[in-house]
Every structure is written in structure tokens, then in C-alpha cells.
Design brief:
The complex is a heterotrimer.
Chain A (H helix, E strand, L loop, with lengths): L3 H24 L3 H21 L3 H25 L15 H21 L12 H9 L3 H22 L8
Chain B lengths: L4 H21 L3 H24 L5 H34 L10
Helix pairs in contact in B: 1-2, 2-3
Chain C lengths: L1 H6 L1 H20 L5 H18 L20 H23 L8 H20 L3 H19 L6 H32 L4 H14 L2 H22 L7 H8 L2 H26 L14 H20 L5 H22 L2 H32 L10 H4 L1 H15 L5 H16 L2 H29 L14 H19 L2 H10 L5
Helix pairs in contact in C: 2-3, 2-5, 3-4, 3-5, 4-5, 4-11, 4-14, 4-20, 5-6, 5-11, 6-7, 6-11, 7-8, 7-9, 7-10, 9-11, 10-11, 10-13, 11-13, 11-14, 12-13, 12-18, 13-14, 13-17, 13-18, 14-16, 14-17, 14-19, 14-20, 16-18, 16-19, 17-18, 17-19
Classes of the chains: A mainly alpha, B mainly alpha, C mainly alpha.
């Protein structure tokens, strides 16, 4: 990243890729297209993490999000084709409300973006070792709690997913 | 033409808006969850950007936990989606919805 | 290090109990007395967790470098959650809606939710708040969908998880903005940092803080079922198994209220007595939310025919009353909320237990099937009437004391807005009498439908009803011990 122009172009390319893909996720009429676009969006966000020199996060994003969650979503799309309706019973304001909400949130986010004072950009150094220290130092309690969260999610998902023919295991 | 914090915040703001749009307008449960993933990624991108621009390492650690939470949530949510699908198909597919507002 | 571990002693015991229950479930297998032994194991774990309260370090120092706080508010609510978990496990053990072969998983999920609630009320750090909120949410989604093969139950779980995931996503975004503007994740440092920013800040800064605060509120509002994050509530309460509904209506709601107090009152330092925290008029904001929540809850409850749905709207209304207390934000108001929640726990659990007992015999949850219940089951009808009148807030029942403390705190705030809020609250209580009394009238004054079965209450259910009903009566006349405990929770006395 020596040349600032090239560097900026890389950023804008990444950002455009991410947002166009996200637009497909939100607007595409075909849910399979949406699922693949989500794949691309998460990939783009991983690129932005790398650009922010958050190397560990970029890798974790690739492994957990791109490799795990989006594949899970893709499976769910394939397995449940035509599952709509559970929310139609709610008087949610639909398209018009969605557009108004989107514009309002975008406007608020832009105001916030221009107003938040930017600190000094830190040096682009690898942060993995420091994060590892933090996980077993200052953040050891959240580290343990998140393991319980994962246990609960695992047991819960198994509970839900186990076949429901009779009560015998 | 330097890339600073505002550029990242704009990207994450658009991600948030698109995600919210998907959550509000979609009827398909999986598509709503995709919208949620966009919102989550917007927040995580914010955290990492703030962490780079003067926030210290806390933001990156938070984002790491956030990714793990998103994975746990996705597992449970999709298990429930599959359960609904099975129950619907095996019980009564014509009834679109039994719990009414 | 030992002090740190002792500070989260109850949580460590709860974690161990979750794991032991899961293992015991596998070991016991299909042997008889499976339900009973797992319930006893869970009760033993809860009792052991309660015992570790005596080992908590004195003076309540913050543990783990300030991630969790050991203050009175946290200790009070952690104790309350153990009580809620006791009743949750007991209800599940007595209900036929939880099949015996799944009771182990039920107990484990319920205890995991309790563990999350317990962490949530003491979290002093944005990361810990988000993590423990997820630990509350994920097992509750599973619990809501516990009646497998029942499309109403799984639909309830789906609504719960979709709204919940959206709310926690928004909350994460809000937290990220708070972190960006304050430069720290520590709740006690965020408030002062934002106050300093807002004092000399531009309109943009104030808009940013407002956006961050509102998005963060989404997560708490969802747990509390406050307007406009309440839509999931009636559907989930109706569709989920009754023991789960009973637990969700008191446990996670109380945890959300306590976390909101910590976030708004302790974190931002917002109350009517202080200048606008972070440039935001918190008391008015929360006051308006409180008005909307209780009015909508009470009005929507009137036409309901399903008792569980009626109680769901009633629980939304109660969330509104509780929000009034948080809006005021003075120590008096926090004490009032801390008085109200245990009473609410007793009467709401009692009402759901009665619903469960009726459902077990009649298989129905509609008001029409409660007609003439007094002839078929006098004791149950009287107990349910006590709970319903207490929920209305009629003297001399405990609900009256809770409301009295709340309204007193609101009136004491002394501004015109809060006088209006108090009047709206009183009017709402009058409206609520209308639908609670409709159920009581059906039970006592109307004739049974033809061929309606007698509702015999099993001994354990009767015992639990008595355990819930007697304090509901006694606390209405002799409430000073509870008020003292609540005062300690609010930090009024040391």
C-alpha cells in the first residue's frame, strides 16, 4: 500500500463489490441468487478487514462466515424452498415502509459518519498475537461465556433437529 | 484521496440500511436471516474500523466474539426454520399461519 | 483470582448444573423416575448456586477488571432469577406439555437461560452485555419451539428467533457506534465520555449518539417486550408450551428490565434528577415508550379469548409500568422496580400455573372453558382470582404494593410530564381491571358448559399454587422486608 491512489482504488473496488453484492441480497427476487450474493458480500467484508490490517479477523471471517454460515444459509435455502408465510400474519409495513426506513437509516448513518471524530490511524501491524493475549487476559471471562453460548446453541440445535418419531433414542 | 473512518462508516451504513430493508420487506424466513447477517456485518465492520482509527484493540476482540455469536445464532435460527418446514409439511401445508395478530 | 471466581460463584455452579443435567439425562436413559431425578438434580444445583451467594466477596467490587459488577442490583436480581428458574423447572416437571424423554433438555436449556440472565444483570461492559443477552436468547428460542411436530410451537419459535436476531443485530450496530464515539467498551466510562462529547458537540454528534442509543435500546426493548419491539410476544406466549411461557414472561423480562436499568440509569447516569445524559432526554423518551407500551398492552388484551394470549398482552402492559420506573431513574424508582418485579414474578407465575392446570384437564386455553370453574375446582378458581386481582393492582394484594411504590416514585419526579405519566398509568390499571375481571366473572358467575370435566389439581401443583398465592396475599399486608431488600438493591442503603 505505498501509492495512496492505488490504495484508495483498492478500497473503493472492495467497497463497491461488497455493496453491490449486498444490494443483490436485499433486492433480488430469487432467494438462491440472494444466498450466493450473501456469500460474495461476506467475502467483500473479509477483504475490508484485511484492508484495515485486521488480519486475524479477515481469516476468521473467511473460515466462520464465508465457509460456515453462508454454506449453512445455502443449505437452508435448498431444503426449505417455498417457506414463506409465517410473517404475513403480522401487519408489518411492507415495501413502502421498507424504503422509508432504509432511507432514514442511511441518512442517520451518513450524519453519524460525518460527525464521528476520527482518531489517529494506527500502524498496520499484525494484531493476532495481541488479540490472543487479550482473549486469555483481560477478556478471559467473555471467552469462557462464549464457550457456554456455543454449548447451548449446539445442544439446542440438536434438540430441535433430532427426528420426532417417538420418544426412544 | 486517503481512506479514513468516514468511508468505512458509509459502507457500513449502507449495509445496515440494506439489511434492514431485507428484514422489513422479506417474507421468507431464510431471506430475513440473510438481512440480519447484513446488519451484523455492518456492526462488525464498524467495530473493526473504529478499532483501527483510535479505538485500540477492544473493537477487534469484540468483532471476533461477534462473529462467533453470529454463527451460534445462525445455527439455532436455521434449525428452527427447518423444524417449521417439517412441521408445516407434515401437519398441514395449506394453513399458512395459525397464530394470528 | 480467587476473588474473581467467587464473584461469579453462582454462575459457575449453574454452568456445572447445566452440564450435569445433560450427562445425567443420558445416563438415566429410559429408566423410571427420570423426570423426578432430573428435577431434583436441577433443584440441587439451584440450591447450591444460592448457597454460593454467601461466599460473594464483601462490598461488591467489580470483578474481572470491571467486566462484571458485584453491586447490590446484580445480587438482588441474580437471586430472583434462581427463584424463577426453580419454578420454571418445577412447572416443566409437572406439565404434560414437556414429554418425559425431553425433560432433561428442557431443564438444561432453562438453566442455560438463567445463567445468561445472571450474567446479563451484572455486565458492566458492552461485550459482556451482548454475550449474555445471546446466552439468554438462544436457549429461549429452543424452549419456545419445544413442542415438536406442533406447528404452532415451531411457528412461535420462528417468530421469536427472527425478531430476536434482528434486535440483536441492531443492538450490535448501536454498540459499535457507542464504542466508536466513546472509545471504550466499559459502561461506566461510556456515559461520562458521551456526556463530554454531547456538551460541546455538533448536531451531527448528537444525532450519532441518539442513533446509537436507540439502536441499543432495540435489544433491551425486545427482551422486555416494550412497544415497538413487542410484536413477537403474543404469538410466542400463545404458541410456546405453558411452562416455557410462564418462565419467559418473568425471567428474561426481569433480566431485560435489570439490564436496562444498568445501561440507562447506571451507565448513562440518566434520571429526572440529572441533566440530559449524552444529550438525550432519557426520562421523556422512556416515559413515552412506557405510555405506549402499557396502553397498547391493555387495550389489545381486552378482546382476547385465549387466556395465554390475554396474559401475554397483560405482560406487555406490565413492561410499560416497569418502564415508568426506569424513566424516572432515581434511586427511589429503582427501588420501586425492584419491589415490583418479585411480586410480578409471583402473581404471573401463579396465573400461568393455574392456566396449566386447567389445560391439563380440559385441553383448552379459551375463556369460554373457564366458565363455572368455581364449581368444578373451587380452590384453583380462588387462587387464580387472587393472582388476577393482584395483577390488576387491587388492595390488599401484593400487586397493589408494587404499583403503589412505582406510582409514588413517578409522582415524586415532580414534573408535569410525569404527572401525566402517572395519570395514564392509573387509567391503564382501570382498563386492565376490565379484562382480568372478565375472566374472574366467567369463573365465578357463569354456568359451566355442558359436560365440562372437573378440574382436579394434583398435589404438587396445589402445593406450588399455595407457595405462589400465600406470599401474594402476605406481601400485600407486610411488605417491609421486600422493600428493605429492594432498597439495598437500589443502593439506597449499603
Amino acid at each position: 500500500m505505498t501509492d495512496p491512489i492505488v490504495s484508495a482504488m483498492v478500497f473503493y473496488a472492495l467497497a463497491a463489490f461488497t455493496l453491490v453484492a449486498a444490494g443483490f441480497v436485499a433486492l433480488s427476487g430469487n432467494i438462491v441468487h440472494s444466498a450466493f450474493a450473501l456469500f460474495a458480500t461476506l467475502f467483500g467484508v473479509a477483504g475490508l478487514y484485511a484492508y484495515l490490517s485486521a488480519d486475524l479477523l479477515a481469516v476468521v471471517q473467511m473460515l466462520v462466515y464465508v465457509g460456515g454460515i453462508s454454506v449453512l444459509v445455502l443449505f437452508a435455502v435448498m431444503l426449505t424452498s417455498g417457506l414463506d408465510g409465517p410473517l404475513t400474519s403480522n401487519p408489518t409495513f411492507r415495501l413502502g415502509g421498507g424504503i422509508v426506513l432504509m432511507l432514514a437509516v442511511a441518512a442517520a448513518a451518513f450524519v453519524a459518519a460525518t460527525a464521528v471524530p476520527s482518531g489517529v490511524e494506527s500502524a498496520a501491524v499484525p494484531t493476532t498475537a495481541a488479540i490472543g493475549d487479550a482473549l486469555l487476559g483481560a477478556y478471559v471471562l467473555p471467552f469462557e461465556v462464549v464457550s457456554v453460548v456455543l454449548l447451548a446453541a449446539l445442544v439446542g440445535a440438536v434438540t430441535l433437529a433430532r427426528g420426532y418419531k417417538g420418544g426412544h433414542r | 484521496m486517503t481512506i479514513g473512518l468516514p468511508q468505512y462508516l458509509v459502507v457500513s451504513g449502507v449495509l445496515l440500511a440494506l439489511g434492514l430493508f431485507a428484514i422489513v420487506t422479506r417474507k421468507n424466513a431464510v431471506a430475513i436471516l440473510m438481512g440480519v447477517e447484513l446488519v451484523l456485518n455492518a456492526g462488525l465492520l464498524n467495530l473493526v474500523a473504529f478499532s483501527r482509527f483510535g479505538g485500540g484493540l477492544d473493537g477487534q476482540v469484540f468483532a471476533l466474539f461477534g462473529i462467533v455469536l453470529a454463527a451460534a445464532e445462525a445455527v439455532v435460527a436455521l434449525a428452527i426454520v427447518l423444524q417449521v418446514f417439517r412441521a408445516r409439511r407434515s401437519v398441514d401445508a395449506s394453513k399458512a399461519c395459525e397464530l394470528k395478530e | 483470582m480467587l476473588t474473581n471466581l467467587l464473584a461469579i460463584g453462582p454462575e459457575l455452579v449453574l454452568t456445572l448444573t447445566v452440564v450435569l443435567v445433560l450427562i445425567a439425562d443420558l445416563v438415566i436413559g429410559d429408566r423410571p423416575a427420570r423426570r423426578g431425578s432430573l428435577a431434583v438434580l436441577s433443584f440441587a444445583g439451584l440450591a447450591a448456586a444460592a448457597a454460593t451467594f454467601f461466599l460473594l466477596p464483601d462490598g461488591g467490587p467489580a470483578a474481572f477488571g470491571g467486566l462484571v459488577s458485584g453491586d447490590g442490583l446484580g445480587v438482588f436480581f441474580r437471586g430472583l432469577f434462581l427463584v424463577a428458574a426453580f419454578f420454571g423447572v418445577a412447572f416443566g416437571a409437572l406439565s404434560d406439555e414437556i414429554p418425559v424423554e425431553r425433560f432433561g433438555e428442557y431443564a438444561a436449556m432453562l438453566l442455560a437461560t438463567t445463567l445468561g440472565m445472571s450474567f446479563l444483570v451484572q455486565s458492566q461492559n458492552l461485550l459482556m452485555i451482548l454475550l449474555s443477552l445471546e446466552l439468554v436468547s438462544l436457549p429461549s428460542y429452543v424452549l419456545a419451539g419445544f413442542r415438536r411436530g406442533d406447528s404452532r410451537s415451531s411457528e412461535a419459535a420462528l417468530k421469536y428467533v427472527l425478531y430476536g436476531a434482528a434486535a440483536s443485530g441492531l443492538m450490535l450496530y448501536g454498540f459499535s457506534l457507542l464504542y466508536g464515539m466513546a472509545g471504550t467498551l466499559d459502561l461506566s466510562a461510556i456515559g461520562p465520555a458521551l456526556n463530554a462529547k454531547a456538551a460541546g458537540g455538533s448536531v451531527g454528534i448528537r444525532a450519532g449518539i441518539a442513533l446509537a442509543a436507540l439502536l441499543s435500546l432495540a435489544g433491551f426493548g425486545y427482551k422486555v417486550a416494550a412497544v415497538p419491539f413487542h410484536q413477537w410476544c403474543p404469538d410466542v406466549y400463545e404458541g410456546a408450551p405453558t411452562p416455557v411461557t410462564a418462565f419467559l414472561s418473568v425471567g428474561p423480562k426481569a433480566a431485560g428490565v435489570a439490564a436496562l436499568i444498568r445501561f440507562v440509569v447506571i451507565g448513562f447516569g440518566a434520571s429526572v434528577a440529572t441533566p440530559p445524559a449524552g444529550g438525550l432526554p432519557w426520562p421523556v423518551l422512556l416515559g413515552v415508550l412506557a405510555m405506549a407500551t402499557m396502553t397498547l398492552g391493555n387495550l389489545a388484551a381486552i378482546p382476547q379469548d385465549n387466556v395465554k394470549r390475554l396474559l401475554a398482552y397483560s405482560s406487555i402492559a406490565h413492561a410499560g409500568y416497569l418502564l415508568m420506573g426506569i424513566a424516572v431513574g432515581t434511586p427511589d424508582a429503582v427501588q420501586a422496580v425492584a419491589v415490583y418485579l418479585p411480586i410480578y414474578l409471583l402473581m404471573n407465575l401463579g396465573a400461568f400455573l393455574a392456566v396449566m392446570a386447567v389445560r391439563a384437564k380440559t385441553g383448552s386455553e379459551t375463556i369460554a372453558d373457564y366458565r363455572g370453574l368455581v364449581a368444578r375446582s373451587p380452590a384453583l378458581s380462588i387462587a387464580l382470582a387472587i393472582f388476577l386481582f393482584s395483577l390488576t393492582g387491587l388492595p390488599p394484594l401484593a400487586g397493589f404494593i408494587g404499583k403503589f411504590y412505582l406510582f409514588a416514585a413517578v409522582v415524586k419526579a415532580g414534573t408535569p410530564f410525569f404527572y401525566v405519566l402517572a395519570i395514564v398509568g392509573v387509567l391503564n390499571s382501570v382498563v386492565s381491571l376490565f379484562y382480568y375481571a372478565r375472566l374472574v366473572k366467567a369463573m365465578f358467575l357463569e354456568a359451566s358448559p355442558d359436560g365440562a370435566p372437573a378440574v382436579l389439581v394434583p398435589v404438587p401443583v396445589g402445593l406450588l399454587l399455595a407457595i405462589l398465592a400465600i406470599p401474594t396475599l402476605v406481601l400485600g399486608l407486610w411488605w417491609s422486608p421486600l422493600a428493605d431488600l429492594a432498597a439495598r438493591a437500589a443502593g439506597i442503603v449499603g
